[in-house]
Amino acid sequence: MAPKIFVLGATGYIGGDALYALVQAHPEYEIACLVRDSDKGAQVASQYGKARLVYGNLDDGEILGQEAKKADIVLSALVSWLPSKLAHRLIAPRLDCANADNENAVNALTTGLAARATEAPAFYIHTSGNAILFVSDIDRKTYGETSTKIYDDWEGLREVTSLPDHAPHRKNDKNVINADGPKVKTAIVCPPTIYGHGRGPGNQRSHQIPELARSMLESKKGFQVGGGENLGPNVYVQDLSDCYVKLVEAAVEGGGKATWGKEGYYFVENGEHIWGHISKATAKAAHKQRLLPSDEVFSISEKDADSLAWWGSALWGANSRYHAIRARKLLGWLPKKGAKDLEGDIAEVVSAEAKSLGLVPGHAAKVAS
Fold first, then answer.
1. The domain spanning residue 50 has which CATH number?
2. Which one of 48, 115, 166, 317 has the minimum C-beta count within 10 Å?
3. pLDDT score recorded for residue 107
4. Would 36 be classed as within a structural domain?
């Protein structure tokens, strides 16, 4: 029998691209997708006619539990950067996203999987985010400063899974790890800054760099947080999706070579960037497209960054350095694009954000006049 996969995030940026990659690699899989309404359902149905649509949201615990009970694998590929319930209420409607840090959803899904009437274990693959490593800069308010601290998911895994409880995503990460047992095997995928055009049926836009470009265009100037010396990893969206596919394939094999539970934490990256360099490249691209009056980059404070975008101080000013070892060693994950490709993507991002704002080349000259 074909494995049954229940996918959350099918119309989102991460989940949509992961679903595309999964269907391309394994059209034989039986896939059910959680969708919020008929419009979302139509988006999925237009691209994946064989997918079964499940109408509901992350607060519908009964529906989630019932669907998990029917599945062999739950792939929760939702966005996981919103730092609070308030942020989710304010931002999610504009970005059209659900929040992976929904504790009730995780509990309902893992409980449903554990209730399956089979001896073989079910699998739950959860999406966290590199904001979990922002905690040191958030606590010390050292935004825009460099850091020499580099985490990894191999020899340094215990340090990652022992971060303080107030770190972003940490509480739900613990819930996922603690849900692991004989009946349910769990894994966490932790993406960084993601770039590239998504291939899913809904949102095809990333967040951190597009929001940076959008904020520059709206404020009519280039900027960086503090000294702009903080660093972070990055990954091409299709490479991230390949990691999800490989983890699902391991689950289909009964666990495969993957590790699960306390050892099932997978960083994903293929290089890192300095955020000040990203700011300069973004301002340069916007100026070249005649959307900013100059390519000068100004230093802004934590408060100013947060006024431009929710949590902008951390999104663009905090460090989150890590090496992704586990997926490479165990899953044979081989990303194809790196940091240079990210910088090459910026001009297209600026153009797309300008279009969404209704701006046209020459806007900068009109603003300056």
1. 3.40.50.720
2. 166
3. 96
4. yes
Given a contact cutoff of 8 angstroms between Cβ atoms, the answer to whether 285 and 198 are in contact is: no
Distance CA 134, CA 317 (A): 9
Q: How confident is the model at residue 86, as a pLDDT?
A: 44
Give the whole-angstrom CA distance, residue 55 versus residue 73.
18
Kindly provide the b/e burial profile for residues 127-142, where b requires at least 16 CB atoms within 10 angstroms of the residue's own CB.
bbbbbbbbbbbbeeeb
Q: What is the pLDDT of residues 52-98, one digit of tens each?
A: 999 999 999 999 999 999 999 999 999 765 554 444 444 445 455 55
Count how many domains the chain has. Answer: 1
Distance CA 225, CA 243 (A): 31
Can you give the pLDDT at residue 360?
A: 79
Instruction: Look up the domain containing 181 and give its range.
Output: 4-140+150-204+235-267
Q: Does residue 336 lie in a domain region? A: no
In a domain, 209, yes or no: no
For tokens 């539990």, name the residue. Answer: 65
Ranges of the chain whose pLDDT falls below 50: 84-92, 94, 369
Q: So what's the pLDDT on residue 326?
A: 99
Quick check: 180 and 262 in contact, CB under 8 A? yes
Please, are residues 45 and 54 in contact by the beta-carbon 8 Å criterion?
A: no
What lies within 8 Å, CB to CB, of 81 at 6+ separation is: 129, 131, 168, 207, 208, 315
Q: Judge whether 297 lies within some domain.
A: no
